[in-house]
Amino acid sequence: MLRAPLFAATKRAMSTSTATNAFHSRFQQYALQLDATNERRERLVKASRDVTIHSKKVIFVIHRLNDSNRDKIVEQAEKDLAAVRDAHVSRVAREVEGVDYWKLKRAFSPGMQEFVEAATVVEFCKTGKLLTLQQLNSSLCGVKDASGVSFSVDIDDYLLGIADLSGELMRLAVSSAASGQGLEASARIRGFVQALYEGFCLLFYNVDGGRDMTKKVEVMLQSLVKIETTCYSMHVRGSEYPASIVDS
């Protein structure tokens, strides 16, 4: 008479143990997936940091530019930018695939913004024009992600990178004025940044991390004011003194 209850209890215990093991196994799988994602995120953070560091070096090269070495400096900056793309942006691309691009975007977005800033300042110094998103991504067509698809910069990182461009152009305008290159170079930069700021003011664009964009547009206005002040001071100085003194 005791065997039936004992058998039932044993069966229930075995069933509970099986369910517990299945439950434990499932969470072990989740743990492995989380560990893999976290490791990938760490690799992306490191790759993004390297993109940022080497993109800044490209910008530093551009700030050595003057009328006598323009072609040489632009050529060197283009080579350095290509090296950043091939050695570091490619590392980012290899870690992202499909939905992972958006899931892990915050890990590498700062590096992409800095890369956009470097690429656009080089393009401006070369042609006086804004590098478009299509042109930028065309230059990345040889960089493949983990699935073999061409890597591309998204519109959010592109706009945030361009917003930072104004600061570098402000430094170029001020350095041009300080080195005695005349009003023309600074005035050209002023017109470009004015158009850039007007374009951003017309945009009602909710980018990923809208507060970042708001802050960057505020900084853009500050940079524009500094450029305009520099141009105004040069114009007033030129009207008060002979050209031979102003250019000296």
Task: Write up what this structure looks like.
The chain is 80% helix and 0% strand. It has one domain: Methane Monooxygenase Hydroxylase, Chain G, domain 1, CATH 1.20.58. By secondary structure, it is mainly alpha-helical. It starts with a helix and ends with a helix. The protein has 9 helices and no strands.
Keywords summarizing the entry:
single chain; 248 residues; mainly alpha; Methane Monooxygenase Hydroxylase, Chain G, domain 1; elongated
Provide mean pLDDT, rounded.
Answer: 83
Elements, N to C (H/E)? HHHHHHHHH
Largest sheet: none
Based on the structure given, which CATH architecture is correct? Up-down Bundle
The rough form would be described as elongated
With helices defined by DSSP (H or I, 4 residues minimum), what is the helix count? 9
- The low-pLDDT segments are none
Work out the number of β strands: 0
Structural class: mainly alpha
Could you tell me the CATH topology label: Methane Monooxygenase Hydroxylase, Chain G, domain 1
The tally of structural domains comes to 1
Cα distance spanning the termini = 115 Å
In what range is the share of β-strand residues?
under 5%
Subcellular location: Cytoplasm; Nucleus
Organism: Selaginella moellendorffii (Spikemoss)
Main location: cytoplasm
Family: Belongs to the translin family.
